[in-house]
Amino acid sequence: MRETLVLNASFEPLSTVSLRRAVVLVMREKAVVEQSHPGLRVRAAQVELPVPQVIRLRRYVRVPFRQRAPWSRRGVLVRDRHRCAYCGRRATTVDHIVPRSHGGGDTWLNTVAACAADNHRKADRTPGQAGMKLLVKPFEPTPADALLLALGLKEGESLPEWLTLPAAATA
Ligand SMILES: [Zn+2]
């Protein structure tokens, strides 16, 4: 899959995203095309776009983490959109899935956002021991994840059905 470079509104390079994601950002008017593949177009019934090589965000966004993100409590809350991993309600605390007292570390994969009530209920136990289920799978955020979070786009958000990408551009 071809990748598109994303620049902040200030022209500072932020990340690369897939061509599909770049097209969504342009169509949502979150970004403008700065440079495109000569001769290649994305065609649809009513829309035609150049295939973007470089896009630039219309508004400056503050991206919470750039390269390999160092673990932080704030970063976990941002990654999980302040949603409790156990009940989905608003989270203000960070839970260690394997508690630190059992050797669990401060890592992206061992921590999730949690509401204070669930964090208190789980206490010094694993989810299994506490009889609690994780609704989400923790992940290590990439720069592209961070960018999507900063733009408020959902990870699974996809292109409209009617939009087709040229075969040459998706190879
Ligand atoms: Zn909760």
UniProtKB/TrEMBL annotation:
A molecular function (GO) term: endonuclease activity
Keyword Repeat: no
Domain HNH nuclease stretches: 71-120
This protein's UniProt keywords: Endonuclease, Hydrolase, Nuclease
Key word Hydrolase present: yes
Pfam families: HNH (PF01844)
Designated name of the protein: HNH endonuclease
Species of the source: Streptomyces smyrnaeus
